Amino acid sequence: MKFRKRFLAAAMTMAMAVAMAGCNGGTGGDAATGLDAETLLKTANETMASVTSYSAEMSVVFDMAMGEEKAATEIVAKMEAMTDPLKLKMDMSTKMNGEELQAYQMYAIQDGESATSYINIGGQWAKQPISTNDLAQYNAEQNMDLYLKNLSNFSATGSETINGKETTIVEGVLTGDAMKEAMKTSGLDSATASLGMTADEVISMIEGDMPVKLWITEDGYVMQYDLDMTKIMESLMSAMSQGQDVGLKINTTSIKMTCDNYNAIENIELPPEAQNAA
Q: Which residue, 236, 256, 237, is CA-closest to 176?
């Protein structure tokens, strides 16, 4: 039972690390053909490259079980961001099996090649240096660069109104090679250090492609994206178990981000309490 709990805890930590790395942006790669969807993706690539600010709500869901031990976790982050330099305000909450575990507020400010985060938990503020790679996971421009340039086997599959905007749904896959390339610059090492693993070790375990859905307006704004990381997490957990049947079942690992207020946020200011944090 103790082994199961330790492995489940490790799986949750790894799921968080890989999921947040999967939000990180990258460059390069090819796109398959498909006239309408291809034109829309090219338009989106140009539009999203010029985004200067936005608001968003991101939901990261992990649902897994090992024997009788279950872990259904949802992390919800509501944020406002400016992209150059990156400024971020975020309210985040975490629930496990329906019970709220933690809620906190974070501001992050980039200054050249460095950045500082200011975190408020229960009214207590603390500040610390943060990697710009860790901040990149919240950068809509960089996120979209990865998905728009590396999406394969894609097609337009429908339409939907998101935040009052008419969008076309484009579905495709992000190949394992593209995913691995993104993770190389994602700050994954810091997220997996507690497990005694390097980013290269984690990356080498990943196999398979990741389904991606994008909701894109006619003028190229990506209003929502949805990533299904379930198969990737299954391959990673299988590699971690080294051939042992540990009874771990990955039900869902997914990320959804819904965006709004593109280029409409004029400033993000730190509260006085944050400015005085130790």
A: 236
